[in-house]
Prior knowledge:
By secondary structure, the chain is an alpha+beta fold. The chain contains seven helices and 21 strands. Strand 17 (about 290) and strand 18 form a beta hairpin. The longest helix has 12 residues, at about 230-240. The radius of gyration is 22 Å and the shape is elongated. The termini are far apart.
Amino acid sequence: MILLLACLLTAKSSLDVLSSPGDDPMAAMLAKLRQTAAKSVVAIEIERESDPDGITGSGAVAQHRDYYNRPKGPTSGVIYEADGYILTSRFNVSGGIRKNGLKVTLWDGRQVPGELLGTDEQRDIALVRIAEKDLPVLPRADYARLHQGTLVALLGRSPDPGHPTVNAGILSAMSRMTRTAVQTDAEMNYGNAGGALVTLKGELIGVACNIKPDTVWGQSGGVGFACKAAEIDALLPRLKKGERIEAPKQPFLGIRAGEGNPDIEGIQVVDVMKDSPAEKAGIKKEDVLVEMAGVKITDSESLKEALEPHQIGEEVVLKVMRKAKEGWQEKTFKLKLEGRAEP
Length: 343
């Protein structure tokens, strides 16, 4: 295991650069995934009439728009059921798709037309159907056996559909995106978003999702997400019916949080939005938020999870630590949650 982890930490790129696995056990396992599990990963090509997720910024971004914009090449998807149901990221299929503008390339090189069925905005997943049968499906991972630090691989089929990509990493968190996704440091980009996050035995953990439109092609910040297969199972009947499930409007506090404070466990407020619920309640910059509605706050994710069960218009109690001359003082505020203003 120590040898495997060392290999992982020193070679965090695609298997394409490891053309000769040799005696490297990690490379050998990834090569096997490329030959077996990758058959359940497809390439998806979209001809769009419009692309709402393209970057249209100004300044330096505008000068390098081709560098930041979503590439026009294929993205990835996962065969989820043998009779032609394929999961991918909603981001991959967003925008106005031309008639007959969705094509799926299978592991054997066949390209077949696809139909977009349902989507889920919050979980960033979409269901595509192709008229094929007896397709290879990945076995499901046993979540009870997964843990933080489990070695994983992210499988994709871009930029060349004929040659799958395999990126190694670990599970860095088991519960993200309000408990609907796992987090991984396996390199994620436009090409392998929608691909399969698997164990080293080729068992499906989830579908790579939540790629952002300003993510640089080929570059990863070390944080990627995969929607859990169990979440997808629960939604599959609705997706098959063609439902377009919108993300519920979320209440917000109106703060921008930092990484925390070395003296106090919690998250430090680095900015308070003007006319926001936080400003109205009396929250100030440099306060450290330690509790909301009785839930201990340790990081940004715990704050998101504390907010999740509450509704717009509801009143919640926040506890913060505020720096004073004689040290830190605990202060309590009542805050009425509001919906985020539309841009």
